[in-house]
């Protein structure tokens, strides 16, 4: 698929106006969000939404999140607003919380992936919000990457993955969170986080004053819920802190990249016969780690290592989103071109 010769980098007010024009014309444009760059198309134009699936190589039965400019747009997509929704909106919107609601009666739209539910959120990135407000519509916008590959957190990643597939990306710098939004199911009395993200289940519980479950595994059709996902080209292996140095020493091929966060491990790695550029330090706190994860893996992968070893992070509640993404990045499933 090479419909476009180049991928234009849009900047400033003129870039926003051009992005709006392209979206009105039914094209896809990569836009910055506070989570990752999203591949946006007018969610009210089925043919435009179909271009998202084609550009990403994403199966059409995988639902998409619809980004809306404010709460008044909920009624355009959902049949009703649960009692908890207003509290959540007041606390977390605009922001990285996606809610799943029952669809509006008669809504026949490819964004649902054939389901009777709809995923909605109000993003907080000022450029994305400006585009939404100017369009006065919803934008379907999954991550702006090829299906199952690393989500982009800077424009250069979009350019590398989607040149020839979309016309433009709106420059918005590096994303604030670096991990996709939290997805919360509001379609039943049991509140469930179906994808961990920047907003934790504990924060949602505190907001609502009721329990929220986070199933480790589930079969719900929501974005990101496939075994192998968020993957660089080099295979990723998670290694415990106290085993990492030995694991590297036991490898005959030393063209191994390493992503580590603990100072002790980094000191040990510096004493090994590895190229310094193949060792990357990532933040030791959950938020900082999440923000840097995709970009750091991308940078290491550009060096074409045979493997990427990742020091296994902590497993506390704060680290759920990071561990969710790493578990999928380390799944060895064939990714077709």
From TrEMBL:
One of its GO terms (molecular function) is tRNA binding. The lineage of its organism: Bacteria, Pseudomonadati, Pseudomonadota, Gammaproteobacteria, Alteromonadales. One of its GO terms (biological process) is regulation of translational fidelity. Belongs to the SUA5 family. Residues 13-199 form the YrdC-like domain. Required for the formation of a threonylcarbamoyl group on adenosine at position 37 (t(6)A37) in tRNAs that read codons beginning with adenine. ATP binds at residues 58, 117, 143, 151, 195, 230. It comes from Pseudoalteromonas phenolica. It holds the Pfam family Sua5_yciO_yrdC. It catalyses: L-threonine + hydrogencarbonate + ATP = L-threonylcarbamoyladenylate + diphosphate + H2O. This is Threonylcarbamoyl-AMP synthase. Keywords: ATP-binding, Cytoplasm, Nucleotide-binding, Nucleotidyltransferase, Transferase, tRNA processing. It is found in: Cytoplasm. It is an enzyme of class 2 (transferase).
């Amino acid at each position: 698929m090479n419909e476009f010769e180049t991928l234009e980098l849009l900047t400033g007010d003129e870039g926003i106006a051009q992005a709006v024009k392209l979206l009105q014309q039914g094209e896809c444009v990569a836009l910055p969000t506070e989570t990752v760059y999203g591949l946006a198309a007018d969610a009210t134009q089925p043919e435009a939404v179909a271009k998202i699936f084609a550009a990403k190589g994403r199966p059409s039965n995988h639902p998409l999140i619809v980004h809306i400019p404010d709460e008044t747009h909920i009624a355009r997509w959902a049949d009703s607003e649960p009692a908890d929704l207003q509290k959540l909106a007041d606390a977390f919107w605009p922001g990285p919380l996606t809610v799943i609601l029952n669809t509006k009666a008669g809504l026949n739209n490819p964004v649902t992936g054939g389901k009777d539910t709809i995923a909605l959120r109000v993003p907080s990135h000022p450029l994305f919000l400006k585009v939404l407000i100017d369009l006065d519509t919803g934008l379907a916008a999954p991550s702006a990457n090829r299906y199952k590959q690393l989500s982009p957190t800077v424009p250069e990643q979009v350019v590398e993955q989607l040149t020839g597939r979309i016309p433009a990306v709106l420059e918005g710098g590096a994303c604030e969170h670096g991990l996709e939004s939290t997805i919360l199911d509001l379609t039943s009395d049991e509140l469930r986080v179906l994808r961990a993200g920047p907003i934790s289940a504990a924060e949602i519980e505190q907001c609502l004053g009721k329990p929220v479950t986070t199933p480790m595994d589930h079969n719900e059709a929501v974005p990101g819920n496939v075994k192998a996902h968020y993957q660089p080209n080099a295979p990723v292996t998670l290694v415990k802190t106290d085993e990492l140095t030995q694991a590297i020493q036991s490898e005959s091929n030393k063209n191994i990249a390493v992503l580590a966060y603990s100072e002790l491990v980094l000191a040990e790695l510096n004493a090994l016969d590895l190229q310094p550029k193949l060792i990357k330090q990532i933040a030791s706190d959950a938020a900082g780690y999440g923000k840097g994860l995709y970009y750091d893996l991308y940078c290491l992968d550009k060096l074409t290592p045979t493997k990427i070893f990742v020091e296994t992070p902590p497993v506390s509640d704060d680290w759920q989103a990071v561990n969710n993404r790493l578990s999928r990045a380390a799944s060895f499933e064939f990714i077709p071109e």
